């Protein structure tokens, strides 16, 4: 954090943040479309985004998106 209280990310940090946010959005949407309460979906997505491997996430995302 700099003197103006802005958080500055390295390129690697930005990439990790973007990947995590992509997972979060994906899981939130998947859960709400399955009928999960939006607040619960948001909380569960927050947990899921941190524990799933990148490989599993990519396979899951590809499989689900192909079926739509």
UniProtKB/TrEMBL annotation:
<dbReference type="InterPro" id="IPR001367">
    <property type="entry name" value="Fe_dep_repressor"/>
</dbReference>
<feature type="domain" description="Iron dependent repressor metal binding and dimerisation">
    <location>
        <begin position="10"/>
        <end position="62"/>
    </location>
</feature>
<protein>
    <recommendedName>
        <fullName>Iron dependent repressor metal binding and dimerisation domain-containing protein</fullName>
    </recommendedName>
</protein>
<dbReference type="Pfam" id="PF02742">
    <property type="entry name" value="Fe_dep_repr_C"/>
</dbReference>
<dbReference type="GO" id="GO:0046914">
    <property type="term" value="F:transition metal ion binding"/>
</dbReference>
<dbReference type="InterPro" id="IPR050536">
    <property type="entry name" value="DtxR_MntR_Metal-Reg"/>
</dbReference>
<dbReference type="GO" id="GO:0046983">
    <property type="term" value="F:protein dimerization activity"/>
</dbReference>
<dbReference type="InterPro" id="IPR036421">
    <property type="entry name" value="Fe_dep_repressor_sf"/>
</dbReference>
């Amino acid at each position: 954090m700099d003197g103006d209280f802005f958080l500055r990310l390295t390129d690697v940090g930005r990439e990790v943040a973007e990947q995590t946010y992509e997972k979060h959005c994906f899981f939130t949407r998947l859960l709400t479309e399955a009928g999960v309460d939006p607040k619960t979906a948001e909380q569960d997505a927050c947990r899921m985004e941190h524990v799933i491997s990148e490989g599993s996430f990519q396979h899951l995302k590809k499989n689900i998106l192909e079926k739509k």
